[in-house]
């Protein structure tokens, strides 16, 4: 029997996952767990080529991924040297010297159907950086480097917040590999050198390896990273005019003694921004920059001058471009991960995009032959997520008051996508955030970045008008006090990690 074909009586769909990075192993593990009745999964990867090996900050959805697979959180955190993440601290984005934290979760709670920020704005009409931060338990805990599990059932802003993880990207895929292989996923080591396609419709029939092996399948999931081996170059939508950053220089540093920050930091730089992601055993650092505005040598110099401590390894240069495939699922090839598109890691969204694409694939899991409706449904879901995230990322650049470098001048003055321009106009006039019902970055996220970067609206929802300003001040103070009190009772983040996930 040829490799990749099924035995007698097994007519499940043959799924071949091409690539064994974060995207490949997440896909293989999830398909084995969630669609194992309908398919058998084979993964091909090349140790010689390796994985991109960055991607250390996640979103709260990652918790649901590991929960849905039945993976023990503490075991996952130990294996990947993970820390907790309560949000992202943005430094110097609005103006040099300003900072705010974009938390996971809401500020305060809505009253009479009106969101909290409309009440807040009555008493804080001026730009104030993080002035709304103390009304979020997540921000307050992050500021104090504390952590404990939230109680999101209680509907109490003092105890409810979201959290995610910061982990070692080189350890996550191997962890998932063990898990997936134990559940029937088969793995082939080898470099793909050719792709065999149907003459009639261009569908992939098999991939051919350097060692001469041929792996057949019904459905191919292209997780080959920036190489995009199967999905190819034919359908790329380029967004670099809106998101000009196209390179990163990255290197780890040693963990400082003492507490571990339960958040990722994004610090604006002359031609982009710099990440700092604290793990248990080291700190991940990288400078994402636009090569149109800064050459690689200068970027490296600025990066080394800015990081805290000596790099533990020679800084790596990574190249990318912002955009996505116009059809991530084409024929019998579904691209997931870097093969499907790239949005810079300013809001840690790539692994989330992998996860949502897997969910969409499971929802639209094809039969034989593949139904165009499944493909279209999948592509619509993926496209909508990419577009919304793109606009939210652009906001971080465009809503700046900085004019100290040509890069910041460019992003401040550039034309934005029409949906973002409309969203900004609505906010400026009414403090409303144009909503969508599901997906990433709902109202509290937009409020965090807009207020954090000093985009103060002219008006607010008049249904929130409180005739007695002193009463509103007292209510705000009580809420802030309740949050501060609950957070003060939480342990230090490192202490929590040592007690619960050591
Ligand atoms: P890769 O890791 O590149 O894996 C590709 C796989 O394909 C490898 O196994 C490789 O061996 C295999 N392959 C390729 N060619 C062949 C071949 N010919 N034959 C056989 N196998 C082959 N995401 C986040 O969510 N948070 C972050 O903080 C974050 N930071 C990032 C920072 C930077 C600078 C970059 C560039 C990305 C970042 N990302 C982040 C994105 C994240 O790294 C990726 O989304 C994630 O790692 C998935 O990558 P991948 O599996 O698609 O690709």
Automatic annotation (TrEMBL):
Binding site for L-tryptophan: 347
Pfam families cross-referenced by the UniProt entry: Trp_halogenase (PF04820)
Catalytic-site annotation from UniProt: 85
Binding site for 7-chloro-L-tryptophan: 85
Enzyme Commission identifier(s): 1.14.19.9
Binding site for FAD: 20-23, 338, 351
Coiled-coil regions listed in the entry: none
Name recorded for this polypeptide: Tryptophan halogenase
Keywords: FAD, Flavoprotein, Nucleotide-binding, Oxidoreductase
An MF annotation (GO) of this entry: monooxygenase activity
The species this protein was found in: Sphingomonas xinjiangensis
Gene3D superfamilies (UniProt xref): FAD/NAD(P)-binding domain
Top-level taxon of the source organism: Bacteria
Keyword hit for Protein transport: no
InterPro entries the UniProt entry points to: FAD/NAD-bd_sf, Flavin-dep_Halogenase_NPB, Flavin_halogenase, Trp_halogen
TM helices/strands, residue ranges: none
């Amino acid at each position: 029997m040829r490799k990749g074909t099924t035995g007698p009586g097994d007519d499940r769909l043959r799924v071949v996952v091409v690539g064994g990075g974060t995207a490949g192993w997440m896909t293989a593990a999830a398909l084995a767990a969630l669609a194992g009745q309908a398919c058998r999964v084979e993964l091909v990867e090349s140790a010689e080529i390796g994985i991109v090996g960055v991607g250390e900050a996640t979103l709260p959805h990652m918790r649901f991924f590991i929960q849905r697979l039945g993976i023990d959180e503490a075991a996952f955190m130990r294996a990947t040297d993970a820390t907790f993440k309560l949000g992202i601290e943005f430094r110097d984005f609005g103006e040099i010297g300003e900072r705010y934290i974009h938390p996971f979760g809401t500020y305060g709670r809505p009253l009479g159907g009106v969101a909290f920020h409309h009440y807040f704005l009555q008493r804080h009409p001026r730009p104030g950086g993080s002035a709304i931060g103390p009304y979020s338990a997540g921000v307050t805990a992050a500021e104090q480097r504390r952590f404990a599990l939230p109680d999101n059932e209680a509907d109490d802003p003092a105890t409810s917040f979201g959290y995610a993880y910061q982990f070692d990207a080189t350890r996550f895929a191997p962890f998932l590999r063990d898990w997936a292989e134990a559940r029937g996923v088969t793995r082939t080591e080898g470099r793909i050198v050719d792709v065999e396609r149907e003459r009639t419709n261009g569908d992939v029939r098999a991939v051919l390896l350097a060692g001469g092996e041929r792996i057949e399948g019904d459905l191919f999931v292209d997780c080959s990273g920036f190489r995009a081996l199967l999905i190819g170059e034919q359908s790329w939508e380029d967004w670099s005019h809106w998101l000009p950053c196209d390179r990163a220089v990255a290197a780890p540093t040693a963990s400082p003694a003492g507490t571990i920050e339960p958040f990722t930091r994004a610090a604006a730089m002359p031609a982009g921004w710099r990440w700092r992601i604290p793990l248990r055993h080291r700190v991940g650092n990288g400078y994402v920059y636009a090569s149109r505005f800064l050459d690689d040598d200068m970027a490296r110099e600025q990066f080394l001058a800015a990081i805290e401590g000596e790099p533990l390894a020679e800084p790596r240069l990574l190249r990318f471009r912002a955009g996505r495939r116009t059809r991530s699922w084409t024929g019998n090839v579904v691209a997931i991960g870097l093969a499907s598109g790239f949005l810079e890691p300013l809001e840690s969204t790539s692994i989330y995009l992998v996860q949502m694409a897997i969910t969409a694939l499971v929802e639209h899991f094809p039969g034989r032959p593949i139904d165009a409706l499944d493909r279209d449904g999948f592509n619509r879901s993926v496209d909508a997520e990419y577009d919304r995230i793109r606009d939210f990322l652009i906001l971080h650049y465009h809503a700046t008051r900085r004019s100290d470098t040509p890069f910041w001048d460019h992003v401040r003055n550039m034309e934005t996508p029409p949906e973002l321009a409309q969203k900004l106009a609505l906010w400026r006039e009414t403090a409303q955030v144009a909503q969508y019902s599901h997906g990433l970055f709902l109202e509290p996220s937009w409020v965090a970045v807009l207020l954090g970067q000093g985009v103060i609206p002219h008006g607010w929802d008049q249904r929130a008008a409180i005739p007695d300003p002193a009463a509103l001040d007292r209510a705000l103070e009580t809420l802030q006090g309740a949050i501060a009190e609950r957070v003060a009772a939480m342990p230090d983040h490192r202490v929590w990690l040592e007690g619960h996930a050591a």
